Amino acid sequence: MTTIIDGKSLAASIRAEIKAETANILAERNQKPGLAVVLAGDDPASAVYVRLKEKACAEVGMASFQHNLPSTVTQKELLALIDKLNGDNAVSGILIQLPLYPHLDSNAALDRVDPGKDVDGFHPINVGLLSQNLATLMPCTPAGCMEMLDRYNIPIEGAHAVVVGRSNIVGKPLAAMLLHRNATVTICHSRTRDLKAITSQADILVAAIGRPRMVTADMVKPGATVLDVGISKVENKLYGDVDFEQVKEVAGFITPVPFGVGPMTIAMLLSNTILAYKMQRGLIVSMQDDKGRKVTG
Ligand code: NDP
């Protein structure tokens, strides 16, 4: 019997927990955690994501500060804005929506964000801390995947986890998180030989590839947990990297697309914003519980 992991309702319950937390902070400290989003690019999908993030903040009672910069913005002006947000007490978290306009240097922009406000977990300091298992703010999509595994009580320790994809925003950080939770981790990529031979050994299989329906039923071990991070639009329809209809007949747990991993990403962004707020005020001592799981508030 396959369980479909319901990312939409999981994310809704996390948002409800965050809403209760922001209400507490408001009542006790008369403050609101706040997220600043910098949009300095003209990708239509970015505009949609930024609106979703703004809406999510409003829904949980957080402040949001949106900065839409024109295509004439210079690198110097962008960095000056980031400096201003770094110094602003009302801003707990800063998110630089990628991709930036082509004339801007995104690495320099990401590096300029105060690591303590880096709610995307992309700053080199946060990347380094994650690799040492000392992470505070972790990248949202992989953190959302881990949260899904935990909230569905899927055992991680000792499991063979296969992550297909090695990007800095999904594959690599997720592999690190799984490793820190004592999974045996294999990372696959476009040069991997005989992908199927590896994926079919996975107890936990994560597809973060960006190729619609590439993972087919014969690549999946019966009873495995399959997390599908991929999102591709084909003729106006969204597809994941996994052939959901086929694979759901084999897997033990599987995420759909849409309404699987996607909604968890924004929930984790809100969770990181609360964490950042608390860290900035010394309200959090440890970022992980005694089982090594991320503290969510
Ligand atoms: P990238 O393009 O940065 O990385 C894709 C990875 O897949 C690369 O490591 C690449 O290998 C690997 N790959 C490509 N083709 C193959 C293949 N044939 N066999 C094995 N591996 C392959 O993508 P992202 O990590 O940024 O995103 C992956 C997907 O997840 C995309 O669809 C994206 O839209 C989606 N996404 C969804 C999010 C959400 O919130 N749900 C958030 C972020 C991303 P190599 O390194 O060798 O090139």
What does this protein look like?
The chain is α/β, with parallel strands linked by helices and 297 residues long. The protein has a six-stranded parallel β-sheet. A hairpin with a 2-residue loop joins strand 9 and strand 10. The model has no long low-confidence stretch (mean pLDDT 95). It folds into two domains: 89 residues, Rossmann fold (3-Layer(aba) Sandwich); 123 residues, NAD(P)-binding Rossmann-like Domain (Rossmann fold), CATH 3.40.50. The chain is globular and about 50 Å long. The chain is 39% helix and 15% strand. It contains ten helices and eleven strands. The structure holds NADPH dihydro-nicotinamide-adenine-dinucleotide phosphate (NDP).
Number of domains: 2
CATH topology grouping of the largest domain: Rossmann fold
Kindly state the number of beta strands.
Answer: 11
Q: In the CATH hierarchy, what is the superfamily of the largest domain?
A: NAD(P)-binding Rossmann-like Domain
Ligand names: NADPH dihydro-nicotinamide-adenine-dinucleotide phosphate
Q: Estimate the global geometry from the Cα principal axes.
A: globular
Please write out the topology:
Blueprint: E1 3-4, H1 7-29, E2 34-39, H2 44-59, E3 63-68, H3 75-86, E4 93-97, H4 106-112, H5 124-131, H6 140-151, E5 160-164, H7 171-180, E6 184-188, H8 195-199, E7 204-207, E8 225-228, E9 232-234, E10 237-239, H9 244-247, E11 253-254, H10 261-280
Parallel strand pairs: 1-11, 2-3, 2-4, 5-6, 5-7, 7-8, 8-11
Antiparallel strand pairs: 9-10
The structure holds NADPH dihydro-nicotinamide-adenine-dinucleotide phosphate.
